[in-house]
Amino acid sequence: MKDKVLLVWLIAFVFLGGLMGLAQAKVSGQCSSCHTMHNSQNGTAMTFDGGGPYRALLRANNCLGCHSDSAPSDVQAVTPLVKHSSDPGYVFGSSRGSSLAGGDFFYLQTNSDAKVHNVDELNNPDDVLSAPPGYVSNTDYGRGSSWPTNQAVSCAGTYGCHGDPAYQDPFASISGAHHQNIDRTGTTQPNGVYDSYRFLYGILGTEDNDYEATVDKTDHNGYYAVDRSSVNSYTAPNKGSINYLCGQCHGDFHAQVDYDTTIGSPWIRHPTDYDMNNVKTKEYGAYPGAGNGTSLWNGNYGITAAGDYFPDVPVGSNTGAVNSQVLQASGDAIVLCLSCHKAHGSPYDDLLRWDYTACTAGTQNANCGCFACHTSK
Ligand code: HEC
Ligand code: HEC
Ligand code: HEC
Ligand code: HEC
Ligand code: HEC
Fold first, then answer.
1. Burial letters for 116-151: b for 16+ Cβ neighbours within 10 Å, e otherwise?
2. 47-97: per-residue pLDDT in tens?
3. What SS3 state is found at 316?
4. Gap between the Cα atoms of 207 and 197, Å rounded
5. Ligand 2: nearest atom to the Cα of 147
């Protein structure tokens, strides 16, 4: 009996220990690190940029006020950083550097709007694009039949990715989420923004507890997706797919219109929501190109064999689980928008995970991610 009590304490201790530091679901730290009641201390402003006062009594004027390396060090220590002021050092297929799973908004600084989602908060509108390419009317989320002229995408809010799009204001759309956040797993339907995957309203999946700061085939996010060969309608839980998130703004590229009726080769747009188990007997069965020990990425991220999960060319599953091996059971190797793209930014045009110009048929090389699935091209 005494042993049992000890064991329970030990487990509780280890559990609490795991909750310290960055690997914590809810916000931590002194209220005053992030909030100011009157925006005044000894007569000076308490906001990080000297302006304000700001919404939710925050010391930051927008999301990037905390989520970038310009935030005060105590805030940085507990916040996932998505914008660095110097090159985070992402190298496709081998290293994330200091960038997290979604990539980094730093890459705007290489002077190309094509390398990031030019979110409003960057104060640097996209010179080429305004409306999301492939936008289709999405009344579901109240964004309307067409994208407003010169409307930039934002971190959150009606024209943003995070939060509940029913609210125009980014902070209104995520209100309460930070203090209620949980490390969500699998396919449980969320109750709100706080328990949706990464505050992406309604999206399912498993959140890696350090946002893939450390990452390998066993240690990563679990993306939820649905195989479209068997399911054709967008009802829950299909709307929980990470592809549906992208499809909310890029609907045409997400099969809402184009290949609803004709699923399968030959395709007219690159498939997503398509399970590679359906075509396992073809080259896809050798994902990530590890067949016969000849993987282009052998040894990186723990990859040694065919079927090993490759975090830089991720695939989704209908369980939203963290799989270290895929192509083991139907629904565990679903093509994602994120198989090829980063969500925030990358060193490459079109937010691609790799340099598309390195992709040449007949010359397989580790700089091109197409070869992770098209293992015989
Ligand atoms: C590490 C940063 C951080 C710390 C520390 C912090 N907060 Fe917050 N808080 C936020 C952010 C960000 C928001 C706004 C976004 C949201 O609501 O998710 C917020 C929103 C709030 C809100 C409005 C939304 C809600 O959850 O009801 C209240 C109230 C609040 N904080 C109180 C507190 C109190 C009290 C403390 C100290 C015990 C504290 N906060 C500490 C970051 C922080
Ligand atoms: C809330 C709407 C919205 C959502 C959701 C969204 N996007 Fe976008 N996206 C945009 C807008 C607006 C643009 C054009 C302006 C820009 O690039 O900043 C864009 C541009 C892009 C571009 C081209 C970038 C360029 O400048 O050439 C890619 C690639 C892209 N999005 C991929 C994705 C992927 C992948 C997802 C899902 C993870 C996604 N988007 C989700 C609104 C959205
Ligand atoms: C005052 C600082 C602060 C501001 C401002 C802030 N955040 Fe955060 N954010 C944090 C901290 C700290 C965490 C880590 C703890 C947590 O997950 O709540 C976090 C976590 C997150 C996460 C990860 C959630 C998850 O499920 O793992 C997302 C997404 C996010 N913030 C989005 C936003 C958006 C969007 C905004 C602007 C509308 C914003 N944040 C504004 C401090 C901030
Ligand atoms: C995550 C895996 C994955 C990645 C990465 C990937 N593909 Fe594919 N691709 C597939 C699957 C699965 C199909 C559907 C095959 C089928 O139906 O036989 C496909 C289909 C295609 C087709 C159409 C084939 C047809 O039969 O109509 C082309 C062309 C193609 N991919 C090119 C590319 C290029 C170029 C890249 C890199 C930019 C790429 N793919 C990256 C998995 C992938
Ligand atoms: C197989 C890899 C692959 C997948 C999967 C993929 N894309 Fe792309 N995407 C590309 C490439 C490569 C380009 C460059 C343009 C082209 O080849 O059409 C691109 C371009 C884009 C653009 C920019 C278009 C423009 O006009 O500038 C957007 C937006 C985009 N993709 C969104 C998505 C969304 C949303 C999904 C999921 C529904 C998705 N992509 C899935 C590889 C992919």
1. bbbbbbbeebbeeeeebebbbebeeeebeeebeeee
2. 999 999 999 999 999 999 999 999 999 999 999 999 999 999 999 999 999
3. strand
4. 7
5. 12
Answer yes or no: is the C-beta of 61 below 6 A from any ligand 1 atom: no
End-to-end Cα separation, the chain, in angstroms = 62
Looking only at the bridges linking them, the beta strands covering 160-162 and 205-206 are unpaired
pLDDT tens column, 308-358? 999 999 999 999 999 999 999 999 999 999 999 999 999 999 999 999 999
Which letter does DSSP use for residue 155 in this model? E
CA 339 – CA 303 distance, rounded (Å): 17
Strand 154-156 and strand 160-162: the pairing is parallel
Surface-to-core class of residue 265, CB atoms within 10 Å of its CB (0-12 exposed, 13-18 middle, 19+ buried): exposed
What is the amino acid identity at position 278?
N
Say if residues 234 and 317 touch (Cβ distance below 8 Å).
no
Strand partners of residue 244: none
Taking CA atoms only, the protein residue closest to ligand 1 atom 3 is 34
